[in-house]
Amino acid sequence: MSQAKTSSQSRSFWLKQLHNWHWISSAICLVGMILFAATGITLNHAALIEAKPKVTTKEAVLPEAMIAALAVNAPSEKGPLQAPVAAWISKSMKVDVSGREGEWSEDEVYVALTRPGGDAWLSVDRVTGDISYEKTTRGVVSYLNDLHKGRNTGPAWMWFLDIFAVACLVFCITGLCLLQMHAGARPSTWPMVGLGIIIPLVLAILFIHS
User: Fold this and answer.
1) pTM of the predicted model, to two decimals?
2) Terminal Cα distance for the chain, rounded
3) Residues 161, 149: contact at Cβ < 8 Å?
4) Phi-psi region of 39 (alpha: psi -120 to 50; beta: other; left: phi over 0)
5) Sequence-distant (≥ 6) Cβ neighbours of residue 55 within 8 angstroms
6) By the 8 A CB rule, do 133 and 58 touch?
7) Count of C-beta atoms within a 10 Å radius of residue 112
8) Secondary structure string (H, E, C) spanning 56-90
């Protein structure tokens, strides 16, 4: 077998592998890339996009048995509400506080219920049993922006972001390798790649002040 034929077969093998990994990673990244590109624009122009917060409030009073349950194994500073109390709040107020860490003081338990696209909190008076709940939502754009930033999204979304980032790296690296393999027939390849490096570098040096 001639050296030229061996070289041609090797090139064909790597082209096939790179194309496969490139299209697979691009398929995985497709929806995420559209989401992150769109929210990149909305985040960049956040001051121009008016958000109208919607505030929902609820109030309730714990029964005597639940007030007594608050004193059972009560944390000194931080910890979740006792399971019976959390279950009562979930059933009566439709607010899920199970497992959410609260800040405990002598008179009150304050539970921050952070969420993307808004905020929420719940407080329980340990003496009277009065419960106050407030939820603020800032609309779909704010929700999607928080998904972009990974703000208050929980571990499942954080894992998705990591996997998505790896898929993007595979997509970009295989794309770079394909550019290298086809560059001989496309003279403008490396000048275009160079522009992609030089333009953001020049903008950062000239227009972004440290």
Assistant:
1) 0.81
2) 60
3) no
4) alpha
5) 134, 135, 136
6) yes
7) 14
8) EEEEEECCHHHHHHCCCCCCCCEEECCHHHHHHHH
- Burial of 142 per CB tally in 10 Å (0-12, 13-18, 19+): buried
Contact 143, 181 (CB under 8 A): no
pLDDT at 87: 96
Residues 6+ apart with CB under 8 A from 177: 14, 18
Is residue 164 within 8 A of residue 32, CB to CB? The reply is yes
The pLDDT, as a whole number, for residue 1 is 53
Residue ranges for the chain with pLDDT beneath 70: 1-5, 210
C-alpha to C-alpha distance for 104 and 179, rounded to whole angstroms = 59
Please give the pLDDT value at position 92: 95
- Alpha-helix residue ranges (DSSP H) falling in the chain: 3-44, 64-69, 83-93, 140-149, 154-182, 189-207
Query: Tokens in use for 112?
Result: 């921050």
68 backbone φψ class: left, alpha, beta (φ>0; ψ -120 to 50): alpha
Amino acid 63 reads P
